[in-house]
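Our collaborator T.R. sent over the components below with a one-line note: 'Predict the complex.' Nothing else. No constraints on interfaces, no templates requested, no preferences about which chain binds where. So this is a plain run: every listed entity goes in together, and whatever single assembly comes back becomes the starting point for the next discussion.
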Amino acid sequence: MTTAAFLSLLQGAGVTLVLSGAGIALGVPLGLLLGLIRWGRVPVLSPIVMVYVSLLRSTPAVTLCLLIFFAIPTMGIDIGPWTASVLTLGLNTAAFNCEIWRSGLNNFSPDQLEAARSFGMTPALRFRRIIFPQLWRACLPGLVNEMTLLIKSSPAIAVVGVVEITRAATRIGAQTYDPLPPMLVATGIYIVLIVVFVGLQRLTERLYGQAGAAA
Amino acid sequence: MTRDFGVVWEHADRLVEGLLNTIILTLVGASLALLIGSLVAILLMSSSRPVRLISQGIVDLMRCIPFLMLAYLAYYGLPSLGLNLDNWTAGLFAIVVYNTAYMAEIMRSIWIGLGRESIEAATAFGFRGPRLYTRIIFPQIFLAASPMIGNQLIQIIKDTAFLTIIAVPELTHAASSIQSQYFVPFAAFIAAVLIYWALCMLVEAGVFVVERLAEVRR
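Returned assembly:
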């Protein structure tokens, strides 16, 4: 395998990281919003979120990506492969993150909530000052675990033509008629990415997190 | 829009065929992975430290590789080693190899929590070797692990969609072929998504039944 081939694999790794990062940046806050809607039993919205979560959790990323990439343009909205990829990864991970946030919220100490309420804190203040600072620490292991799953499902976006690691590897294989070396290198890159993420998870847990069971 | 769904309905036979392939790949893949995973779990629980470390290392490594990468390695990589699989077999091979690691890990996690009492009582009654595993250890593990095995089954159903990339005629591939022929993207893929949803709910219902059975046996 040539240096140029290796560099194009690294470029693919960059694309994977940028798109996964954008997906996480979309999916984690969206998941929190959905989790809050479920936790607060917001009328009308809560059942809709329940159906959304159930549906998205059983939809394969590849199918979702194809749906977004081909169906949204028929509604007259122009969408490129990159936007479709970020939407796919973000909407998919938001459903799983919703459940992580929600279980954190369900396990939140009711005593503290009552105390905050009796001090006359508004719901917004209660969330900002009391709930969130503890919640994100409790949810961190689950969220980071979901991020590694997102990276592992990110090859799905190759189906709409985004040249990320997997697609870069098959392209090199098709050019050189020797697919095994680029694929093994690509596999190695994924292993490094995920090991780094798991290491970060252990580190953040030690620094901020509560002693929680990491998956 | 209604017309689009009509087009998809006219070609429902293709979706059903794809769905059957998805189900067969999932069931055969999961059964083989469960079988081989059980053997790997025995290695993971081995009393010899080197065996334990090496098998745990391999299982952890396997769990870092994306499924599609494994499917590509099986489809494009194995021929370089002189092993030519067609796309369907390569897909099945990837499902089995990938999920063996997860199944083994699931069973190990249950096995650790299993009390020593039942195993010691069984050895006292003269159970040893394969009979100890098939009659005492694994029945307990399988019942206790049914929710996790169910989750893994849902994961496998979703992973089979990746196999459309190596042209395995499964459900997403069928939806994709209908959409590219008649350009009905929304109807075709929504139909596929709804079928996946139904399939996953079926698995969840199955897990519920098995859990009830486990409750009765306890």
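Summary for T.R.: Chain B touches chain A through 38 residues (CB under 8 Å).
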